[in-house]
Specification:
Helices cover 9% and strands 42% of the residues. The chain is mainly β and 64 residues long. A 5-stranded antiparallel sheet has the order 4-3-2-1-5.
Length: 64
């Protein structure tokens, strides 16, 4: 869950802990933009926009 006051910044590397991904597919994404209604991320040349609700459902976490 995104905690109150928790923010993500451009350049942060995040992981989607609940994503249903095939074996060996990366779960690490770089934030390329933040928006009032979500975040844009990229991994391995593919870019995605996720609303805050979608990111929350996928278990967005800062990569440790």
């Amino acid at each position: 869950m995104i905690q109150p006051g928790q923010t993500y910044r451009v350049g942060d590397t995040v992981r989607f802990e609940n994503a249903n991904l095939v074996t060996n597919r990366t779960r690490d994404y770089e934030i390329t933009a933040t928006h009032a209604d979500g975040v844009s991320v990229t991994a391995q040349g593919h870019s995605y926009f996720l609303t805050h609700e979608q990111a929350e459902r996928l278990g967005i976490r800062e990569r440790a």
